[in-house]
Amino acid sequence: MKTVAFVTLGCKLNQVDTQEIEANLASRGFRAVPFEEPAQVYVINTCTVTARADFSDRQMIRRAIARNPDALIVVTGCLAQTNPVAVARIPGVDLIVGNQEKYDLTGLLDSLTKRASPLVRVGDIQKAVGVPATPVTHFSGRSRAFVKIQDGCQHRCAFCIVPYARGGSRSQEPEVVVDQVFRLVDAGYGEVVLTGVDMGHYGWDLVPRTTLAALLPRLRDVSGLRRLRLSSLLPPYFTDELIEVIAGSPRICPHLHIPLQSGSDRILRLMRRPYNTGIYRSLLERLSRAIPDLGIGADVIVGFPGETDADFEETRRLIEALPFSYLHVFSYSDRRGTEAGRLPDHLPPRVIAERSKTLRGLSQGLNLAFRRRLLGQPQEVLVLETRDKATGLLTGLTGNYVEVLFEGRDEWMRQFLTVTVTDVTADRTLGEVLV
After folding, report:
1. Residue 135 falls inside a structural domain
2. Pairing of the two strands 227-230 and 255-257
3. Same structural domain for residues 296 and 386?
4. CATH number of the CATH domain containing 156
5. Does 117 share its domain with 206?
6. Stretch among 130-144, 239-253, 260-274, 286-300 having the lowest mean pLDDT
7. Percent of all residues in the chain with a pLDDT value above 70, rounded to a whole number
8. Residues 188 and 61 in one domain
């Protein structure tokens, strides 16, 4: 059997894509090995959401080449799709495949040999139709399973390269999604995470048209499923029906990630975001009233071209006023071909770094306050498959997305337990198992 090692950079959707590639290759006789071990084939699934992501991509490609110079080096994912020329300049790369062509990787590898210059198979992602169905029943080293219900994006936000990397919005058929969740539950996964680029747009392209709100009850009712978790959703997609389904379903995790990007309406217009701060504030307040102990996360971009001190202050004040449990803070990064890259008034790196530091500090405070509310409370946790590196303790994930550390045995991994939160520090939440 040929051995293959995988490296996945970027989002949860990339992680699902890698597992699909691994499943396809396994069906053709390939055996997956850890990246740290020598392999005959290395597959690097790239991200290109920021310049830092591009740097990490190139670093991992070169690391794979160094591990085994005789191995076949395959690069796929979003950097491969948007800039195959840059990838081809890296000596040692043998095959570059786009985000739609990666589903044909098994056939391409059949005749692939080491090459002086890479074979490039990158098509027009805007012509992609549908989401290929690849049954997956195993996620290496993970207690939770992920299901891709949608790919691509219909929006054209000024800063974002993703529509050019993933194509237009397209959905997986509901029957395929339900079947995949059944498979994962049968394989022993108690929590399933739904993923997509523009997940709230799910079903609009299908015939007959459907919605995320219509899909969720079918998944929630799968026998044996303990938790269903949603990944990122834009504010306009929270219809009355969707909110009612989420709030009324104990199996749906009380955790939502709702991108903000800026607390300034002027900057949101420049970003071409499909909402304003009034819509955002009203939604979060409504969700917090409807769902007890709801964990709410958000993405925020700092230093968008033209962002003034006043704009940043509006963002800071709005974040302080809303019930966030954490933030993902991103420093603005130019992406080739996006509208924002052509805007005037780009900010100095020093200013962006200072503002990012401010918001990260604010996020730490919000997260600490949220976790302190759990003190003394029993929490159901899913025990993850890796121990905390610093303490060696088990890690359990709550429904509202808090990691609790506690003493325990390896046999508890992938199980659901009840723990009482006993202590909360700046960087840790500690608990004890209720026997």
Report:
1. no
2. unpaired
3. no
4. 3.80.30.20
5. no
6. 130-144
7. 100
8. no
